[in-house]
Amino acid sequence: MSAALRTDGLTRRFGARTAVDRVSLRVEEGDIYGFLGPNGAGKTTAIRCILGLIRRDAGEVRIFGEAHPVRQRRGVGAVVETPAFHPGLSGRANLRRAAAYAGAPAEDVERVLALTGLADRAGDRVRAYSLGMRQRLGIARALLGRPRLLVLDEPTNGLDPRGMHDVRRLLARLAAEEGLTVFISSHLLAEVQQLCNRVGILHRGRLVAEGAVDALLSGLGEGRAVEVEVTARDPERARAVAEGLAGVTVLPAGAGRLRLRLDGLDAAELNRALVEAGVAVSALVPVEHSLEDLFLRLTGAEEAS
Amino acid sequence: MTRMLAAELRVVFGRRSGQAALALALALGVLAAATLHILRQSTVDAQVNGLPVQSMVDLSWRGVASWGLRARNFFALPTLLVFATAASLAGEIGDHTLRELLVRPVPRWKVLAVRLFALAILSAATLLATLVPALAGGAAIFGTEADIGPVLLGYLASWASDLGLIALAAAVAVFVRGVAGVVVLVVLALLADLVARGALTVAAGLGVDGAETVRALLPGSSLACWEGWASGWDPAAFAGLALLLAAGLAVAFARFQRMDVP
Ligand SMILES: Nc1ncnc2c1ncn2[C@@H]1O[C@H](COP(=O)(O)OP(=O)(O)OP(=O)(O)O)[C@@H](O)[C@H]1O
Ligand SMILES: [Mg+2]
Q1: Domains: count for chain B
Q2: Which pTM does this prediction carry?
Q3: Which of A96, A165, B63, B68 has the smallest number of CB atoms closer than 10 Å to its CB?
């Protein structure tokens, strides 16, 4: 079975700057793939290359195995950055125009309007839409013609928490019910962690990690070491005691927080040592790694060097 | 393809440039009839070069249509067509609405072809918007005696000349960002052309070989090919127009195929 989307050595330069640098990524059918990276990492540029909007300097793009520059966009719906519309036309008229180019039947317009909850405002001019409504109209437009792959560039940008939740639920539902594959760029890591099963992390144009979210996160807890967060009545004293224990490393953490890496010592032993030293421990919690930790580690690494 | 064209027509005719062009064309047709009506009624014996004004103007059905055409082709309407072309390409590239169509599985040449076709239809519509009231008004005022055939060919030639202008504007609009930039550049190019033709006329007068031929082939001469309905058709003007059309389209299509539409 061929991947839903696959790039090999995708590269795009702007003058001396390489915005996308030999990116080879793979999105399997049915994936909800999070494409992560800090501002300016090259996410939008990569998406534009994938969609054939801008020239690529090197590399290949295959969508459902198809390499033909036009035919490969069959079955693809996309939102790039802020979706653009004719402000003087109604939401519905804008979608009708798009449907003509998508080869989608006119009835499909009503279906996607209903899916995105815009049916009752579809007759208004887009000029009068809020940012969140435009974003939803963009997603509605991308869904015209029942695509098998949806490419979304920061689709929840500008949405309120309710709107974000609705979009996430819609995407999850379409993925589950219609087998839709979703490629979604974002820097909202909590959102991606909730929604995506696989991620790729882009940093300065290069893909620095790719894989299943679980696998990437479990790779963070290096070896046998366990990380715990300690809540004590007197954190300063707790830190002083912990620093004196063998097999304990104090990790950087926010003010008033104490994070420790245990290597060769378990949490119960740590607790006893602290209590014996007169520190009242109120909680001792193993640290769950988040995508944020991974993201900061991978995209912060080069800054330090 | 027909659905895409219908969608594009809605946009082209819905834009301010399209609506202004249609309204102006209609107004000029009505104005031509009204002006000639007033001239006929007028008892003032204004004279130009010792001849009464009335004798200089073809006061007939055909006269109304021909003055309507002259007014329609004088500066403002061609400029609005350049505006419409620029809005359709440079404008939609700039505001990203064109990108939203290019993410679909449609070849770029088709997207461009549909747009140019819609603009050609806009041009034809503006010609009809002048012609219909001019003919109706002219017939009501002067009756339908005069032979209208040659003027109708003038309208047809004007359409051909508009196509050349649209092709020229399209070729500029795939390089220049911003609608205003495209319009300014096309107008400047046509002014430069005017100067060049002036110089070539002088050169021809001085007996320079080929100056006359080159002059006849320049865009400005080609875009005026429609004037031939009255002064005699000039094959060189049409050859030049074909050249302009082919070159403009070749540049526009070649560039559009490759350009970044972010
Ligand atoms: N047309 C362009 N000309 C020159 N440089 C560009 C152009 N487009 C993008 N870049 C550069 O390419 C790099 C990647 O930009 P891109 O917009 O792809 O980042 P991004 O990951 O989408 O960022 P964000 O999260 O802010 O949307 C940036 O350094 C940007 O300045
Ligand atoms: Mg971006």
Answers
A1: 1
A2: 0.88
A3: A165
